[in-house]
Amino acid sequence: MFAPKSIQTDHEDLIHDVAYDFYGKRLATCSSDQTVKIWDKSEDGQWRQSACWKAHTGSVWRVTWAHPDFGQVIATCSFDRAAGIWEELPCESRDETSKTKWVKRPNLVDSRSSVTDVKFAPKHLGLQLATCTSDGMVRIYQAPDVMNLSHWSLDYEIHCKLSCSSLSWNPTRSCPPMIAVGSDDANLSAGGKVFVYQYNDQLRSWSKLQTLALVTDPVHDLAFSPNFGRSYHRLAIASKDLKIINMVPIKQDNNLETGTEYEITLVGQFDDHEHQVWRLSWNVMGTVLASSGDDGKVRLWKANYLGNWKCISVLVGDIPSSIPESSSQSRLDLSPVGQASTVASGSASNKRYPRVVPGGNFGAAMT
Amino acid sequence: MASKRELLSPEVAVADEQAHVHGFMATCGIGNRLMLYGGSKSACRDEGHLRANLHHGCRLHEVEWDKDMHSPITRRLVNESHNIFVALQQQAENLTDLALKSYLVKASRYYRSVIKGCCWALQSESENTSSEDEKAWLEDQQQIFQIIELIWSLCEILYIDTTPGAPSLRQLLGWVRWHFTEGKKLASEIIQDKPEKHSCYWEAIYRLLLQGCIDEALELFSKHPLHKTDSFRSLSEMMGKMPQLANFMSQGRSLPEFDIKWRHWRDECEQRLEAGEFLTDSNLTTMAKILCGDEEVFYQMKDYCETWFHMLVSRLFYQNPVVKNSELQHYIQTCLDMYRGDSSHTAQLDSILVAVFEFNINQMIRDCSTYLGSWWFTSHLGDLLYHSGHLEPQKLPQGVNLREYLLLEYASSLMSHKSLWAVAIHYFDFCPDNGSDYLGLYLERIPLDTEVKAHKLLHICEKRGLQEHAKSICKVMGKKCLLNNRVGQALNWFLKSKDSSYATVLSERILTEYSETGQFSNLDLLENLGSSMFLSSKLTFLGQYREFHKLYEDGDIQEAAILLVSLLSARLAPKAFWVTLLCDALPLLEAEQVVISSQQTYELMHCVEELTKEASLVGDENQKKMLEVEKTKLSNICLALTRNLDRAIIVEGSVKPF
């Protein structure tokens, strides 16, 4: 059963990104109004704003949390060509009302154009951060000393040649660091729009592993699925349609020069969003994927036990006044042919079998 | 087809003016939860458009699903079924064949009694509540659980509580009687007073007959004033003579024997019917036709059977009581057709029950998952069927086996709850393929609100060998304590996670605090460091230094002196702390007895020398000023050292009196 809980953000302009922290108890939002807001979930389940500050001098595109092992740290990226790192400091009085203090760790200003995405590396790689920009640069920063976040070094720069829109770290522990970068370059003849880079430990550098020829349309977002015990990687790509692909390693001699090669298999391709797909988000287990696109709807995708992906639910914005209180529209008639009396309901002889709410039941994907 | 598609992916509307224009975007949260926000289509991504078109008051919407199990009543169901589940897994490992089979039957009944209990609780709750919305929800839930019970008991009859070769019709009758009580209710209502006058007299008898309640029907029938007439007596006789399978089985007689008896009996019924014995009363004819299993008469009984599956059981009882379970499916279509009416639409419950009768378990579970709200039902039933050998483990290149898929989904739906996660953990434990990976990913995301909870989680991780997660928990807790300035507690957590860099930082903090205040915080911790002291050299020093203080306080001056000198001579102490240590040596040097030997004094002098040399190299003005203070201290120490050396040489040079 869906039960929406609404929060007034008071952002003065469009929200571009919303990020849950590792535990889902805090929320960071960023907006075209150049601010970042932090929200904390209280005991009663209400979200309360605990901090708000002007983070950039342009639209803030993305916000992301570092793993709590590194403290309370977020990173932002903006149209103002900077990426920011922010850390929450211990504050003297810890009562509920006091707003916490977030301080700016260095502003990463290496870019000469809008920074379109920012992502922390998975925890096992230490405190690393990757950014990508609209002039096609991917930069990887590191905080060499996790006690001191005011110092970050720019360790690597990768030139992608095409305007970058999004990037994603491969969360798999067992493989060398890997990043997928998506390009929103509109030129279809420019070839594949998803690049996969891998870090080579011996050469101490990042190199391109593969360009996915599968996607030649502009890519707006991509995301590696969380991985648990799978031997292959899974990547979701938002382009003119939604694609879910698997990267299956091809067994070969340990060729350290080129790294492992992957065979790309298409697991699912969906054009339900009618045109462009804009954003993707995996759940923690990688069992549910949320996508949003030109049709203005959010679609939830899930695989059944046979590994087939299906759209299991659609969320759509509606004009406030026309909404009934509960999600009663989505009820199904589950009555059997004919009528039945039910035992426990006593008086209810000849009562029809109940109507069941299917909304939000992920079992739908079983079929 | 279009409507079918709608059913599979229901659209849920969320009120948001902005999203209505610009569409939604979403971010997944932990558990079955996501945050929606008014999206930005292509046009919104360029800065010019954004400037021109301000969007005030953006809203977020947090959406949750699969929360049905989180209400207090269903929570009880979760806990109780959890106990049954865990016990079942253990028994399934130990028991075999017949013992396992009888245990499975028992487990199935436990589950059903829990469902029943849940239904009753929901009912009484819905009677007591004043809120309309809640009442509607409770009633919905109650009905869902009634359906679940209906399906479950049918599965129990056909799959779990089976005897090879024996027909299940007897149990099916019980199933029908249990879920359709109208006949018995009517009967008990009208038997009180002049039953034959009651308008529902015949209906009650028909209903009882259709459920195979021959004795009750006979009792009611005999209340009729005409029961002494020939035709009534003839029918009563036939009803009384009807061979009952249950009796046969309990007497240990064979099925074919029953079959012969039963056929004889039916032939006799038919003969009497054909001979016109019951023509006196149309109701008697109808009754006789039911006994004979007459095809036509069941169409008249349609309303009394209420549903096709009741009809199926009623018909079989009179037409083919020894039907094999595997043959049941051949009789379904006729019964379905009787109730189909104009529309060719088959409701979900129907298709689920058809799948059960057809032994199409995968289909049944798929349909149930789709239409019955939560994962609770399919996961537990699936598990039970798996243990009874009906759910074949499928190994597919991409998919997972169905039992595990269901259990993982169910457990996942509990993980987002603030206390039910503790139950969910045991379900992951019994998923051999992916359980521990799932558990790991979920465990690390359980918010560590309290120390108790953190310890509990730590214990869970350690028990399952999830070292990485255990470490992470300690690290996060340590950071948290640090954020609240609880240094000692923080140190404790970092020691647990063997995090040497943080241990170093915290040791330094405690030392600085000491040199500022002259007091140690967290004495308990420092005095009981044990072997964890060796995690970082700073910590080792801190521990040893505290040990020195303790020795000194206890008056063990000799030991204290040895420790102090060794701290300096082994260069274990950070240089910034040397002056403090040397000052600590002062009282020892000035002690009445010589406690620091000449050799040890030389060591200390070396240190003083080193410090003085370094001081002369420093150029900064401020630092120079600071050093002035230290220099005075050092010259005092120097003085004390020489005096002590003086005494020590004399003492060491003298012959000790024995």
UniProtKB/TrEMBL annotation, chain A:
Highest taxon of the lineage: Eukaryota
Alphabetic keyword roster: Cell cycle, Cell division, Lysosome, Mitosis, Nucleus, Protein transport, Repeat, Transport, WD repeat
Gene Ontology terms, MF aspect: structural molecule activity
Database matches in PROSITE patterns: WD_REPEATS_2, WD_REPEATS_REGION
Cellular localisation: Lysosome; Nucleus envelope
GO BP terms in the entry: cell division; cellular response to amino acid starvation; positive regulation of TORC1 signaling; protein transport
Protein name: SEH1
Species: Acanthosepion pharaonis (Pharaoh cuttlefish)
UniProtKB/TrEMBL annotation, chain B:
UniProt keyword terms in alphabetical order: Membrane, mRNA transport, Nuclear pore complex, Nucleus, Protein transport, Translocation, Transport
GO cellular component labels: nuclear membrane; nuclear pore outer ring
GO biological process, one term: positive regulation of DNA-templated transcription
Localization of this protein: Nucleus, Nuclear pore complex
Source species, domain of life: Eukaryota
GO MF entry, a single one: structural constituent of nuclear pore
Family statement: Belongs to the nucleoporin Nup85 family.
Function as written in the Swiss-Prot or TrEMBL entry: Functions as a component of the nuclear pore complex (NPC).
Subunit: Component of the nuclear pore complex (NPC).
Name this polypeptide is given: Nuclear pore complex protein Nup85
Source organism (scientific name): Acanthosepion pharaonis (Pharaoh cuttlefish)
Native organism taxonomy: Eukaryota, Metazoa, Spiralia, Lophotrochozoa, Mollusca
